[in-house]
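2024-03-11 09:14:02 INFO queue: dequeued item Tripartite-type tricarboxylate transporter receptor subunit TctC, len=324
2024-03-11 09:14:02 INFO validating residues
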Amino acid sequence: MSLSKTIGALSAALLLSAPAFAEGYPERQITMVVPFAAGGPTDTVARLVAEKMSGDLGQQIIVENVGGAGGSLGAGQVAKADPDGYTVLLHHIGMATAATLYRKLAYDTLNAFEYVGLVTEVPMVMVARKDFEPADFPAFIEYVKGNADKITMANAGIGAASHLCGMLFQSAIDTQLVTVPYKGTGPAMTDLLGGQVDIMCDQTTNTTQQIKGGTIKAYATTTPERLAIFPDLPTAEEAGLPGFEVSIWHGIYAPKGTPAEVTERLSKALQVALADEGVAKAMADLGTAPSPAEDATPAALKEKLETEIARWKPVIEAAGVYAD
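2024-03-11 09:14:37 INFO prediction written
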């Protein structure tokens, strides 16, 4: 057989096998890697959608927590996994910022993954220890700027949502603060509750319970409009800080080379999960909402990632904060 005929036969075989592979997918358990510790806000989101996606797919999705390096360790693990649809990644905005934040990233962010879809965009809230002096957000900004060398701002580590929000806040007020990185959201919140640090900017999925319980003090949200869960809490813009707007979006990815039919099947299951009333209620209780069906698609997530990499690159470069 000639070389051209051999290539043609192989191509035809691949075309025929891909739909057959997708038709039987999934035939076994799927692992969803969350690149952060169990119990954190991203883990909470992952477990909500994994349970409902499992029902639609007819196979269990188990969540595996692979924390470290601001999420890049878990992402790198998935990038190297077999592209068969049985290992996926649920990551937040750190997927975009890591491309600039880390000098030695083990994967090429835009070219190491296939896309499944957006899951949710979680709002952020500027919070402080419960006895922090300022009465409102304008006073908060003035006080922080006037005491920059004394104010301690906690975050959950380089690349974490709280770290990114903190960088954007410091850029917005043109003031460098004393930052205190922790190994995770839990210890950072514990020290904020205990008064060992002064302020933090973190996701509603991690702050709602404490705000409602009065154990921390909330000053403003980072959203365009007020949140239904906190109707009396002003947005940063209406409280006098335009441009300070950020949400922590989450998306699901698969290793590069995963068949399109498989990522589309996963996307369909994601859409089913996000349309579930129980998922919507659970997210509402955490101050967020499921992504609409048109955003829970490969194309929407790809566009979001590209846009966010471009958005955060100058912020990170201006801050001069990098990780090896």
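2024-03-11 09:14:37 INFO annotate: Residues 1-20 have pLDDT under 50 and may be disordered.
2024-03-11 09:14:38 INFO item closed
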